[in-house]
Amino acid sequence: MKIAQGLIVLVTGLCLSSAFAQHTAEQTKEDIARHRAMATAHGQAAQCLESGKKEDVCLKELQAACKGLAIGKYCGMRHQH
């Protein structure tokens, strides 16, 4: 029983330490560039909606602009509705 508890503590510690690992300077620069690209894509999606295009059209444009940048079909951001 104590061995199992010790393993759980060890595995939990390893998972937590990897979750909070520091990025290298290059990884940080890449993250910044990705965030800027996602922000640009979201700005373009807002302009698309403002122009009167339907939401599904603007979503497809957003998905194309965000391909390879973010996780999910909403480019890393999901609305309440």
Describe this structure in words.
The chain has three helices and no strands. The mean pLDDT is 80. The protein is 69% helix and 0% strand. The protein has 81 residues and is mainly α. The chain has a domain at 29-81.
Key descriptive features of the protein:
81 residues, 0% strand, 69% helix, mainly alpha
> Ranges with pLDDT <50 over ≥5 residues?
none
Please write the string of helix (H) and strand (E) elements: HHH
What gap, in angstroms, lies between the N and C termini?
48 Å
Secondary structural class = mainly alpha
Helix amount, in percent? Answer: 55-70%
Tell me the strand percentage band. Answer: under 5%
- Count of alpha/pi helices: 3
Radius of gyration: 20 Å
Average pLDDT score: 80
Multimeric organization: single chain
| Major sheet attributes | none
Question: Concise description?
Answer:
Helix content is 69%, strand content 0%.
Layout of helices and strands, plus pairs?
Elements: H1 2-19, H2 25-50, H3 55-66
Helix pairs in contact: 2-3
